[in-house]
Amino acid sequence: MSAALHIAGLSHRYGARQALDKLALQVDAGQCCILLGPNGAGKSTLFGLLTRLLAVREGSIRIFGQPLCARALARVGVVFQQPTLDLDLTVEQNLRYFGALQGLHGKQLILRIGAELERLQLAARRRERVRELNGGHRRRVEIARALLHRPALLLLDEPTVGLDLPTRQQLIDYLHALARDEGLALLWATHLVDEIDPQHDQLALLHRGRLLASGAVAPLLADAGCHDLGGWFQHHTGATS
Amino acid sequence: MTSLRILWAVIVREMRRFLQQRSRFFGALVRPLIWLLVFAAGFRAALGIAITPPYDTYITYDVYIVPGLVGMVQLFNGMQNSLSMVYDREMGSMRVLLTCPQPLPFLLFSRLFAGMCVSLLQVYAFLLIARLSGIDLPWQGFVSVLPALVLTGLLLGAAGMVLSSQVRQIENFAGVMNFVVFPLFFLSSALYPLWKMQEASEWVYQLCRFNPFTDAVEMIRFALYGQWQQDAIVHSLLATAVCLLLALWGYRPRQRA
Q: What is the ipTM of this complex?
């Protein structure tokens, strides 16, 4: 079976600055891969390339064995770092719009919207304008939207930015459960090591556009002689998380 | 079928946004109405327009100015649409559209078409108010003008899209108004017939002649009276095609997002 996401030899530069340098990475179904890196590591560039916002000039990206094309993107859900909801539309109108863009319609779309809102505890807010929601609820709507078309691969670009601690922890648990219980493949970019589940997650450490280390947490810590992820992150990047 | 549903979803989204932003709706109407009911009323007594096609009799200035103001509504809507695309790109919601599993040209066209539909809403509201205010417009012109409005809406929307692909920040958009919208509007036949321009200045006349907005206004003017100005239609079609290609080129995935 093909990997959910297979990246090989991916490079990207902005003028003279090398933003990504021969990146190789694989995420399998049911796996949560945390893409860890300090600011400026190249995470957003990678997301730009994965979502066709940037042109791939060197290297390749394959999603379930297919090159990056419209058909492959149909199996991908994306939560961007920036808020991307229409503030003037209601929660339901936002989801309806996105569902239609994904080719969903009619009863199927209505049922999916209901199910996702229920799952993310937003059912009571479906007719509220997004402008009236707090940051945590907006984030949940974005996640509901990304899951609406039942993607097999979920791309998350710093999804907990700007959230208070309890909301953040709820979201982290929820996202981990998606991989563990529902078999979704997750690529989750962050610079915060406390978002990592050391028992289950795969780790990929990106620094100055290069992949410094990847694999399961325990062997990575053992190889570096570190006891905790914070120390390991600092050991490799010189930055604190 | 899926494509039509997506197109419909984008139209519904733009309509909802437009109707929920009430100030935008009133702003879109107030601007041309001030020109019509204040500016043109003042000129009405001083300026009559000689018999020139499509008019078969002498007309007052307020009748003359209506097609130009219809063009103005669509011009401002096109620019407003492009401003909203810059905003959407900065705020990220444009990303949602561009990353959905459909070909990029289709997605951009959907957005353009939806913007054009919003402009139709504004134009018909303006025409209705103008007619009810006593401006002599033929009722059948409300129907015959529709194809011209569709083409003009697409042309000006595509022009706005080209601009939005090149303007990286909302703050830079004020310059667009000064350097694009005002010259396009004032250097056209929207406010004065071209022959009057020629009497005043040959080079201004030549600039007006080659302004695509002049073709759009003339197309609307003739269509309002059930006539077709072939040159204006051909020029507008060509200009729309060029703008569409430039917009596609401007929105292609590139080295820098």
A: 0.76
